[in-house]
Structure formats: C-alpha cells, structure tokens
Specification:
This is Arc family DNA-binding protein. The protein is mainly alpha-helical. The protein is 55% helix and 0% strand.
C-alpha cells in the first residue's frame, strides 16, 4: 500500500491571533480546514505564477 503522505512537509506559520481566528471562521463557513484553505491559496498562487513565468521545474 502506497503512503500518499511521503512527500508531506510541516510548515510553521506565525500569525496574529485575531487574523487566525477570522481565517478559521471563514474557512469553516466554506467547509474547509485552515490547512486545506492555505493549500488551495498556495496552489492558486503557484498557478498564477506559472501562467506568467512558465512551469516551475523542481530538481529531483
């Protein structure tokens, strides 16, 4: 059985408590966890970057 979490990394983030509370509230309204929403925001940011500058090729 393949472990899909092999490439998952932990990413710590320092943020103001009020901002985090509001973010979590808004995420909950849309049925997402804060983590899932951050991933979606990151994917959108990457897609926008790649649309303007070309695909990012990672070294393996």
């Amino acid at each position: 059985m393949e472990n899909k979490k092999v490439n998952e990394k932990h990413f710590g983030l320092r943020v103001d408590g009020d901002i985090l509370a509001k973010f979590r509230y808004a995420c909950g309204f849309h049925g997402r966890s804060a983590n899932a929403q951050i991933i979606q925001l990151m994917l959108k940011f990457i897609a926008e970057y790649e649309a303007e500058h070309g695909k990012i090729e990672l070294e393996k």
